[in-house]
């Protein structure tokens, strides 16, 4: 009730939810009370969660924040949300995002921007919550959910977590099933938890993770007890500091937070090691070839026939054109056009194939550094949250937000953003931990020493 009341009071301003399911949530909560009374509690019984509106939820509208899916009601449940429901979670609503998860500020949603619950000291300007999981981050930060699901293709869990002062974990590619999650770039998309503490993330991930035969890239390996990693001794843990992340545009306050994080980990017994990831500088350029290429292919299915909205036209081609013109916003169209271009005959070798080769080199950088260290510590984003309206006229400025999050995505490594305090203007700052494949436990262990 506290959460549904908070949603009623604050969602009109924050716009964190596209769809709220308060009545159903209160009914489910009453049922959870009975379950608890009978002593049959499951790990998430009665826990109110927000679900990014990219996860298909059976019978509950799922829009991807796009006009083309504005009335789409899935007839099935995504594996991640089914796992959370199995463990007793109560869904309070579907959270806002950038359209089809394409963006870094939650300003491309067809349902309007999300406002960050934080303000700069002495300044009332509305700030962006980051993106694309901006609704999830704002909802968790403002107490409109105890936790939320996010998806991360190039940083969409970690960067909004940093901007809103919460914890966000992108698991290893293949750890959580993609079945029933609306696809953006399939070789990068990964679901993960967003919550107010590392422990809450561990509990959520426990439920979300696991092999699923319905996702061909789901990996069949053990899901360890994540909560057991919290508070584990860090003595002797080798923490790598990659030189290349000391990049241009890194703000002084984030640099200071990074040094503070290094000091805390040292104090906890970690050994700090300088490492180099030389191909980091190609991360963004490569990502913005691979992700749009996959997006242009994935979004071909929205043709006015199979899913979502249709705008009639005199011929089949005219119907396709009218449907897609009305259905997709400008950023999604830009991505489809970039993706179609880099995949087209004559340009495929120069762009797409080259990007795939560079992607292998980026992955190799990580593999080599993980022979020397157990985990990497970097900033999550170059700056804290910025104002709504800033950086919006230049897409390249917007893409630069992802400079520190994209490399781990390209390599499929698990990575987590942890809030480490407030910066000069009173806004939360986040640091990123990047780990070995399927070693989310080390992220959780080291993260609990930083938060
Ligand atoms: N900002 C990046 C993009 O727009 C990442 C988004 C994401 O991780 N879904 O592609």
Automatic annotation (TrEMBL):
<dbReference type="GO" id="GO:0050567">
    <property type="term" value="F:glutaminyl-tRNA synthase (glutamine-hydrolyzing) activity"/>
</dbReference>
<protein>
    <recommendedName>
        <fullName>Glutamyl-tRNA(Gln) amidotransferase subunit A</fullName>
        <ecNumber>6.3.5.7</ecNumber>
    </recommendedName>
</protein>
<feature type="active site" description="Charge relay system">
    <location>
        <position position="52"/>
    </location>
</feature>
<keyword id="KW-0436">Ligase</keyword>
<dbReference type="InterPro" id="IPR000120">
    <property type="entry name" value="Amidase"/>
</dbReference>
<dbReference type="InterPro" id="IPR036928">
    <property type="entry name" value="AS_sf"/>
</dbReference>
<comment type="subunit">
    <text>Heterotrimer of A, B and C subunits.</text>
</comment>
<dbReference type="GO" id="GO:0005524">
    <property type="term" value="F:ATP binding"/>
</dbReference>
<comment type="similarity">
    <text>Belongs to the amidase family. GatA subfamily.</text>
</comment>
<keyword id="KW-0067">ATP-binding</keyword>
<feature type="domain" description="Amidase">
    <location>
        <begin position="1"/>
        <end position="444"/>
    </location>
</feature>
<dbReference type="GO" id="GO:0030956">
    <property type="term" value="C:glutamyl-tRNA(Gln) amidotransferase complex"/>
</dbReference>
<dbReference type="InterPro" id="IPR023631">
    <property type="entry name" value="Amidase_dom"/>
</dbReference>
<keyword id="KW-0648">Protein biosynthesis</keyword>
<dbReference type="GO" id="GO:0006412">
    <property type="term" value="P:translation"/>
</dbReference>
<dbReference type="GO" id="GO:0016740">
    <property type="term" value="F:transferase activity"/>
</dbReference>
<dbReference type="InterPro" id="IPR020556">
    <property type="entry name" value="Amidase_CS"/>
</dbReference>
<keyword id="KW-0547">Nucleotide-binding</keyword>
<dbReference type="Pfam" id="PF01425">
    <property type="entry name" value="Amidase"/>
</dbReference>
<feature type="active site" description="Acyl-ester intermediate">
    <location>
        <position position="156"/>
    </location>
</feature>
<feature type="active site" description="Charge relay system">
    <location>
        <position position="132"/>
    </location>
</feature>
<comment type="function">
    <text>Allows the formation of correctly charged Gln-tRNA(Gln) through the transamidation of misacylated Glu-tRNA(Gln) in organisms which lack glutaminyl-tRNA synthetase. The reaction takes place in the presence of glutamine and ATP through an activated gamma-phospho-Glu-tRNA(Gln).</text>
</comment>
<dbReference type="InterPro" id="IPR004412">
    <property type="entry name" value="GatA"/>
</dbReference>
